[in-house]
Design goal:
Blueprint: E1 3-10, H1 12-16, H2 20-29, E2 33-40, H3 44-50, H4 60-67, E3 72-80, H5 82-90, H6 103-107, E4 116-118, H7 122-132
Antiparallel strand pairs: 1-3, 1-4, 2-3
Length: about 140
Amino acid sequence: MANQRTLCIVKPDAVEKRVQGHILQRLLDEGFRVLALKQTRLTRDAAEGFYAVHRERPFFDELCTFMTRGPVVVVALERDNAVQHYRDVIGATDPAKAADGTIRKLYGSNVGENAVHGSDSEENGAKECGYFFAGHELL
């Protein structure tokens, strides 16, 4: 399988717990290569644009409010089979249902505050990396 890109967002809950370094180290240990990384605070417009696919869902407003409440760490990652491997490493959306040792099991609190965002497809991984990083920023 060829190298793929995926996006990691260390969400405000994990940044507040000061575990972003642990999460990043885990991803490096899993063989991911960091293409770009930045800590930022999302504006409401940025959060709404990024999560536009969920605009009609009942949780959209709550999600955007949560994602803008504090700093996030955005990381463009690359490796062989990146999307599926990343999703295996982060675990189920609900930390209570995530496998032991996964990032969400270790650092998430609930479905809404689950420590990290992960791309759900190869196409979205590339698109999401482009949402946060210009082409020349992806090393």
